Amino acid sequence: MPRPSQTHEKREQLLPLVAQAFAELGYRRATTAVLAQRCEVRVNILYRLWADKKAMFIASIDYVYEQAVGIWREVLAETDDDTGGAERLLRHEAEHYGESGLHRIIFAGLSETHEPEIRQALRDMYGRFHRFIRGQIADHRDGHETTGLLGETVAAWAIVGLGNVANISRELGLQTDRGRKKMFSQAGRLLLDGRG
Amino acid sequence: MPRPSQTHEKREQLLPLVAQAFAELGYRRATTAVLAQRCEVRVNILYRLWADKKAMFIASIDYVYEQAVGIWREVLAETDDDTGGAERLLRHEAEHYGESGLHRIIFAGLSETHEPEIRQALRDMYGRFHRFIRGQIADHRDGHETTGLLGETVAAWAIVGLGNVANISRELGLQTDRGRKKMFSQAGRLLLDGRG
DNA sequence: CGATATTGTAAGTGTTTGCTTACGCCTCAG
DNA sequence: CTGAGGCGTAAGCAAACACTTACAATATCG
Questions:
Q1: Which of A29, A36, A119, A156 has the most CB atoms less than 10 A away?
Q2: Do A26 and A108 meet the contact criterion of CB atoms below 8 Å apart?
């Protein structure tokens, strides 16, 4: 009998490194050679774990999203009677924005590939992302007066937009860290419950 | 004496086609071969007009931005006593969002290249973009009560964010046209003057 | 005309990149 | 032990790409 395959474990071991490379470099610049180098293996080993580069990227999309959501759930789990979960999330993003690499991978997938499968993966992930935020807004508003407020769906999209612009401005150095924090907290608050 | 060079005219003639190709396809997919084909010339003719592909892209960034601003100025120039300029702009974008290709070219430049010169061009352009919107917000609020409203800088970034998310959702088919229109008008209005 | 620079056409070059093949070593159940 | 499969290493292929070179045709203006 042959030795048992460790494909699954190896995949789990290398995926964080692969995802990190895609988030940092984008799709094209993360060449298979670079991916392999970062994983400290040879290219063809990656090809034994995934069918092609496209599959590596799709796995990375899911991985990065799950990582981000994991952190958000931790923030939500912190017991804090003063501030609600949604507010804590906003504050957390204002401080740690961009660290997950989520938006970088979205941008890369959107503009560097036109592969139907990648677009579908992005669509799915973005849908979950939006649903998560909308759920937080709903929880936040639960029991409060909501007349005159933005609909939850609209508010969730607008908050995702804040994240996008924060990402771009960070990458280009358009805002100071202070400015970006201010934008997140003030505009986020306004969208969340109508208070400037 | 030789015949006079028509380089300048030719550049102006081909730039719209080149920019259109970059906006549609992104940076890499708009290969020099494709660009030439769309211009109905041979590749090396493009290289007589611009030093390299990078220069073609930078010229396209400026061109697309100028085109977009030109349209916005037309919208602003329409005499309409009922609604202010900023409101008309928001409504216009809600209807015609994405047609200019501005955001597509920004995304392409951001995630497909790491060239310092391209990033600088994007930085400059984004700065002008933000300044333009901030100016419109200032005009809109001029003479009105502004206590309790978002600062102009923050509001302008948040509105740019609306544009970003509208672009992504359009590209992935995440929102209906109706939903996107609603998002633009409602969230835009809220950011503009605090009214839901 | 005629000298001269511009324009159009065509073929090619060197590099990068995704992906494959070939092959020998190692591991572990029977 | 043994041998069937997993594993690591290395070399290389075909395609795509940005960019170049060579050259003939053409238009301008003294």
A1: A156
A2: yes
Of the candidates B107, B104, B102, which has an alpha carbon nearest to the alpha carbon of residue B66? B102
User: What is the crossing angle of helices A53-77 and A85-96, to 10°?
Assistant: 130
In this structure, which topology does domain B53-193 adopt according to CATH?
Answer: Tetracycline Repressor; domain 2 (1.10.357)
- A·B CB contacts under 8 A: 136
**Distance in angstroms (rounded) separating the CA atoms of residues A58 and A60:** 5
More confident residue, B35 or B110: B35
- The single-letter code of the amino acid at B54 is K
Tell me A29's DSSP state: T
Residue A132 tokens, joined: 């998560």
Residue B1: band (very low, low, confident or very high) from pLDDT cuts 50, 70, 90: low
Q: What is the C-alpha to C-alpha distance for residues A186 and A182, in angstroms, rounded to an integer?
A: 6
Q: What is the pLDDT of residue A26?
A: 87
CB A56 within 8 A of CB A46: yes
Nearest to B93 by CA among B27, B161, B155, B150: B161
CATH 1.10.3470 is the classification of domain A57-193: no
Is there contact between A9 and strand D, defined as CB under 7 Å from any strand atom? no
User: What does the pLDDT look like over B92-143, one tens digit per residue?
Assistant: 998 998 899 999 899 889 878 889 999 999 999 999 999 999 999 999 998 7
pLDDT at residue A79, as a whole number = 77
Measure the CA dihedral B44/B49/B50/B51, to 10°. 70
pLDDT at B82: 74
Domain boundaries, chain B: 53-193
Q: From the CA atom positions of chain A, what is the Rg in Å?
A: 19
- Quick check: B131 contacting A, CB < 8 Å? no
**B82: Cβ contacts below 8 Å, ≥ 6 apart:** none
How far is A195 from A182, CA to CA, in rounded Å?
14
Rounded distance, CA B37 to CA B65, Å? Answer: 24
DSSP conformational letter for A79: -
| B111 close contact with A: CB closer than 8 A | yes
Tokens for B132, please give them: 């333009």
Give the pLDDT confidence of B48-101 residue by residue, as tens digits.
Answer: 999 999 999 999 999 999 999 999 999 999 877 677 888 899 999 989 988 999
Instruction: Return chain B residues 22..51 having CB < 7 Å to nucleic acid strand D.
Output: 28-33, 43-44, 47
